[in-house]
Amino acid sequence: MRIFLIVLSFLLFDIDYFKAYNDTYGHIQGDECLKEVANIAKSVVFDEAAVVARYGGEEFGILLARANQYEAIKMAEAIRQQVEQRGIIHQAFDVFKCITISVGIMTVVPSKNIPLISIVHQADHALYGAKRTGRNRISVYSHHKEADSNV
Fold first, then answer.
1. How far apart are CA 80 and CA 99, in angstroms?
2. Residue 92 phi/psi, 5° resolution?
3. Lower Cβ count inside 10 Å, N or C end of the chain?
4. Cβ(103)–Cβ(111) under 8 Å?
5. Alpha helices (H) along 27-106
6. Which of these is catalytic: 32, 36, 48, 58?
């Protein structure tokens, strides 16, 4: 007998140094940048059941109802690469000179014992791990430690 577990992955990402971008180029251009990044994310998501939403400010969330950790990482990396390759100029960002994103990922087998908000908090924890280790990268939440993708 085969047992199939349903997994859920949540990606939380934001635009690196977006406040500096907004301060440099203005709020109208900042809004255009947000729309461009949202369109990139929506174009890359390969799961029709996925939900892509702006989470707040320059943060976005993607809920993947059937994606395991490997699939979530693959999707996050595709989004990260597409955003960087789009080459949206960001002169206030000393390292890359274009818009980049940092991504936190949490994958879990859902149960009634795991509050949905804890999945968001854990993805947020992973996101800040990606920022802490250099930005423009992916970090996966683990109960033991964060696993970073050094890109």
1. 10
2. -85, 0
3. N
4. no
5. 27-44, 69-86
6. 58
